[in-house]
Amino acid sequence: QVQVVESGGGLVQPGGSLRLSCAASGRIFRIGAMGWYRQAPGKQRELVALLSSRGTPNYADSVKGRFTISRDNAKGTLYLQMNSLKPEDTAVYYCNCAISSYGSTGYADYWGQGTQVTVSS
Question: What percent of the chain has pLDDT over 90?
Answer without folding.
Answer: 78
